């Protein structure tokens, strides 16, 4: 009898924007300055601040706005000087809160070094050391996203765009309005706030996470906030960001992972979807990682439907309707030539019911990408404990023992016995089986064993490492490179990824890239 084991994964809540929308603005110089700062329109904010009168300077408002402006421009020391002068004139609680945030941010980032993208459009601030391995992958995606979103959203931000990468998720709490409890509950490890992208290094997370797509998710928020003067509600922000987070890879790359598809279907059938209004003011404040994950899946489908119905210009039209003065729901309905009530009550539920699960069987293992911080790993660090069929777990343990003794044929036998109990879609099992198959000269069998995981477990980094190993064994260097690059977009702190990448580049006669891959391997090893 075939039984399935359950592999514990982790829902990822990535790419969040704390609410900045829905504000009505008057036209005094102080209010204009606040408006432009909220929308991160820094040139206009600078002009508004320069036009402030004597009253604003006497009251401390001018120094507060100068401090806020300096903070958003990344001048944390200058921001503190202005905010201290403002607080000498008025002990305003809001001003004091900003001063505390700026001081905390300065403390966190004072040793960070600036790295500029090849085009000069992006500046990444990062602590020197192993996290520098992130730079080439981040710049590649950001540069591609700049052009892609210029087409999709009809807006290109004025460079440079500031990015900060933090070594631990708890540091994100120090530099944002989130608490450590918010981060652990919702799985939030990246934000777009204060005119910058803020992301946690994948080395802070057990086995990493899809950090490159997360970074681009944040960049979508950045573009929307500037393009619409911060007038888009959270559900729409997150829907666009979730739909477009893979757009930098190509125009047809949007998708939900299999775990999100299954969760969405289960919650839809149970009648426990998350109302749009409950997503305000932030997905990070939802009560669980699962609630956050289903909310992301829901809003993804709203943009999936809009794009399918209207075509490539759908999102630019949507933002144009908002900039014309329509509220977000009216704007969305106008692009579809319907009403919001009709969409929410009839069109969207029917569309949800019509979306098939992408080839999932009832017994298929699905890797659920859940954020588990390194300091909270505990038993989650032992993958075998997540295989719930004891007999299958014993066969996997025996296979690992054989593998450690270079008895790869014997290991294959044990893994195949485990597969008779678990099926052939468990990523813990299949990746170990694939490695032993490669080492016993059966690379084609390894590819066959791994193929279903591309759909079911694309967030499982070992999948891509073992695919790279198998392709290298078959001298398929281009395919090996692409698999290993995908591994690095999840966990680039595995030196084996870069060492194999160097082999792939050598096979492609690309010596310069091979040397860079070797440098990254040494960097990760701390040499």
Summed up, what is this model?
This protein is mainly alpha-helical and 527 residues long. 58% of the residues lie in helices and 5% in strands.
Q: How is this structure best described in words?
A:
This protein has about 525 residues and is mainly alpha-helical. It folds into three domains: about 30-110, Alpha Horseshoe (Serine Threonine Protein Phosphatase 5, Tetratricopeptide repeat); about 120-355, Neutral Protease Domain 2 (Neutral Protease, domain 2, Orthogonal Bundle); about 385-525, Tetratricopeptide repeat domain (Serine Threonine Protein Phosphatase 5, Tetratricopeptide repeat), CATH 1.25.40.10. About 60% of the residues lie in helices and about 5% in strands. It contains 25 helices and five strands. A five-stranded mixed beta sheet has the order 1-2-3-5-4. β2, α7 (about 135-155) and β3 (about 160-165) form a beta-alpha-beta unit. The longest helix is centred in the middle third of the chain and has 22 residues, at about 290-310. The radius of gyration is 25 Å and the shape is globular. Residues about 1-15 and about 20-25 have low confidence and may be disordered.
Helix and strand arrangement:
Elements: H1 29-38, H2 42-50, H3 54-59, H4 61-72, H5 76-89, H6 93-109, E1 113-116, E2 122-126, H7 135-153, E3 161-166, H8 169-174, H9 180-186, E4 190-193, E5 196-200, H10 211-227, H11 234-244, H12 258-270, H13 289-310, H14 314-323, H15 328-336, H16 340-354, H17 390-404, H18 408-422, H19 427-439, H20 443-450, H21 453-456, H22 461-473, H23 477-488, H24 495-507, H25 511-525
Parallel strand pairs: 2-3, 3-5
Antiparallel strand pairs: 1-2, 4-5
């Amino acid at each position: 009898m075939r039984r399935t084991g359950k592999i514990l994964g982790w829902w990822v809540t990535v790419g969040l924007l704390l609410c900045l929308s829905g504000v009505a603005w008057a036209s005094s110089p102080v209010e204009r300055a606040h408006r432009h700062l909220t929308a991160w329109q820094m040139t206009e904010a600078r002009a508004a601040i320069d036009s402030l009168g004597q009253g604003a300077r006497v009251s401390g408002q001018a120094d507060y706005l100068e401090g806020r402006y300096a903070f958003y421009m990344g001048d944390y020391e200058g921001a503190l000087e202005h905010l201290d002068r403002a607080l000498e004139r008025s002990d305003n609680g809001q001003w004091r809160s900003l001063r505390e945030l700026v001081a905390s941010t300065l403390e966190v980032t004072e040793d960070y070094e600036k790295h500029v993208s090849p085009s000069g459009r992006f500046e990444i601030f990062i602590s020197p050391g192993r996290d520098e391995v992130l730079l080439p992958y981040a710049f590649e995606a950001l540069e591609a996203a700049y052009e892609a979103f210029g087409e999709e959203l009809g807006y290109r931000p004025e460079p440079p765009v500031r990015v900060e990468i933090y070594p631990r998720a708890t540091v994100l709490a120090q530099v944002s309005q989130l608490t450590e409890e918010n981060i652990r509950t919702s799985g939030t490890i990246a934000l777009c706030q204060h005119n910058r992208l803020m992301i946690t290094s994948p080395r802070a997370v057990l086995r990493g996470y899809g950090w490159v797509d997360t970074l681009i998710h944040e960049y979508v928020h950045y573009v929307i906030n500037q393009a619409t003067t911060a007038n888009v509600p959270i559900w729409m922000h997150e829907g666009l960001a979730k739909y477009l987070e893979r757009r930098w890879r190509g125009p047809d790359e949007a998708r939900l992972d299999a775990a999100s598809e299954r969760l969405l279907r289960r919650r839809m059938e149970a009648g426990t979807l998350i109302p749009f209004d409950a997503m305000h003011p932030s997905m990070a404040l939802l009560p669980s990682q699962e609630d956050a994950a289903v909310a992301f899946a829901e809003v993804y489908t709203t943009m999936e439907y809009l794009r399918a119905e209207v075509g490539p210009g759908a999102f630019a039209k949507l933002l144009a309707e908002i900039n014309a003065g329509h509220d977000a729901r009216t704007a969305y309905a106008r692009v579809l030539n319907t009403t919001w009530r009709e969409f929410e009550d009839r069109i969207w539920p029917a569309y949800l019911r019509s979306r098939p699960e992408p080839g999932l069987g009832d017994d298929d293992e699905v890797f659920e990408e859940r954020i588990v911080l390194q300091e909270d790993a505990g038993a989650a660090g032992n993958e075998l404990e997540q295989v719930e069929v004891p007999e299958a777990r014993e066969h996997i343990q025996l296979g690992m023992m054989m593998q450690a003794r270079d008895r790869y044929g014997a290991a294959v036998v044990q893994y195949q016995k485990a597969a008779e109990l678990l099926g052939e879609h468990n990523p813990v099992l299949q990746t170990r089986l694939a490695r032993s198959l490669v080492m016993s000269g059966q690379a084609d069998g390894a590819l066959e064993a791994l193929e279903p995981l591309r759909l079911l477990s694309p967030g499982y980094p070992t999948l891509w490492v073992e695919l790279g190993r198998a392709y290298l064994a078959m001298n398929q260097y281009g395919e090996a490179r692409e698999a290993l690059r995908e591994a690095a977009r999840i966990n680039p702190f595995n030196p084996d990824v870069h060492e194999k990448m160097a082999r792939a580049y050598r096979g492609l006669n690309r010596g310069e890239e091979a040397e860079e891959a070797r440098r990254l391997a040494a960097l990760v090893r701390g040499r």
